[in-house]
Amino acid sequence: MITMEFLIADVSESEFLINYQLEQQIGLGSLPFPKMNSNFLESGAGVCNFFLTNSCSLSTLCPFRHIEGDKTVVCKHWLRGLCKKGDDCDFLHEYDMTKMPECYFFSKFGECMNKECPFLHVDPASKIQDCAWYARGFCRNGPSCRNRHTRRVACQNFINGFCPLGKECKFAHPKWAPLPGADQDTHKHKWVCRYCNERGHKVQFCHKLSLEERQRYQEQSQMRFQSPQPLGGLQGQPIAMGAPGSTGHPPFFSPAGMGAASLNRPLMNPPGLNPHPFDRVKQLGAVGLPRQVPQKPLDEVTCFKCGDKGHYANRCNKGYLAFLSKGSNQVGVSAPVS
C-alpha cells in the first residue's frame, strides 16, 4: 500500500553528505595513546570497516575495534572477566555456545559431573583422524595404529582417469601424492656445515674440503663417539703418551704392560702424585684405576642412633626412637655397680 507520505518523503535514492562522511570516517579523531582503553571499548565501540580490508591508516590510534575474523574459540579468561589483552587476544570475546572451548574433565576422564557445564563435550572418537597410510594401501602399525582405519572401495571411474560425480561419489577417490615429510629426512635440514654454512650435511661430509681434511674430521668424529678403551690398549700393549685413544698418562700405569714380577711388587708413587694415601686414591681413580677405599669392619662400626655396634645408622632397625635406647644404654653403663 503506497501512502502519500511515502510519495512525498521518499529519500531512498538521495545521498546525503553525512552518510558519505560516516562511511569514510571523515573527521575521525585519533587516540592520544596507542591502544588506549582497548579493554573498555569492546562493548561500546564499533568495528573498524577499514581494518577488515587492511586499509586503516590510524593503526593502533584508531578509536574503533580492530577484530580478527579467524577467531574460532571463545577465550576462557574472558568468560571469567580476567582477560587483559582486549582486542589483541587470539581468542574470541563473544559468548557463543558453538565456539566454546573443550571441557577438560570430559576430555580427560570421559565424563563431566557439572550439569550446567558451558564448555563443549566432544566425543573422543570424533577426534580420531583417518590414517593416511592405510588410505594408500598399507599401514605398518596395523590394529595398534592410533588413527582410524576405514575400509573403502576405490572408485573405478576415478582410477581410469575421471569420475563425473566428484565429491558426491560414494566410492573412495585414492590420493597418489606422497605424504608430507615421507620422502625427506627432517634431521638433515637441522644440520649446518660449519665450513660452508650450508644446510643438509655435516663438516666431515662437505665436498668443498679436501680429501685429507674430510678424513681428519671423520676420524675425530669416530673418536668422539667411540667407547673408551682399557688402559692396557690393544693386544696387551701399553698406551704411549699422546697416542690415539690414550688418556695422556705414562705407560707405567697400565697393569697389562707390567710383568708378573712387577705386579707382585707394591706400586710406587709415580712422579707428580701426592704420597698422601687419600689423595693417592683420588688420583689413581682419576686415571682410570679401580677406586678402592678401605672400610671398617662392622665390629668396629658404632651406630650414632642407638649406640650399638655392628651396623651403620642407615641400617638401624630400631626406628626413629632409637635415641631413647641409646640414652638408657649410656645410663646403664655409667651407673655404679653395687
Annotation keywords:
338 residues, mainly alpha, 12 helices, extended, RNA-binding, RNA binding, Znf_CCHC, mRNA processing
Write the layout of secondary structure elements.
Elements: H1 4-8, H2 17-24, H3 41-44, H4 49-52, H5 76-79, H6 104-109, H7 132-135, H8 156-160, H9 211-225, H10 260-264, H11 277-286, H12 322-334
Question: Helix-strand pattern, N to C?
Answer: HHHHHHHHHHHH
Mean pLDDT: 70
Strand content: under 5%
Distance between the termini: 132 Å
Spans of at least 5 consecutive residues with low confidence: 39-43, 230-290, 331-338
Gross morphology: extended
**What does the radius of gyration come to?**
41 Å
Structural class: mainly alpha
Short synopsis of the structure:
Residues 226-252 are annotated as: Disordered. It comes from Schistocephalus solidus. The protein is mainly α and 338 residues long.
Please, could you describe this protein's structure?
The protein is mainly alpha-helical and 338 residues long. Helices cover 25% and strands 0% of the residues. It has twelve helices and no strands. It has helices spanning 4-8, 17-24, 41-44, 49-52, 76-79, 104-109, 132-135, 156-160, 211-225, 260-264, 277-286, 322-334. The longest helix is centred in the middle third of the chain and has 15 residues, at 211-225. It is extended. It starts with a helix and ends with a helix. Pfam families: zf-CCCH, zf-CCCH_2. A zinc finger (C3H1-type) spans 69-96, 97-124, 125-149, 150-176.
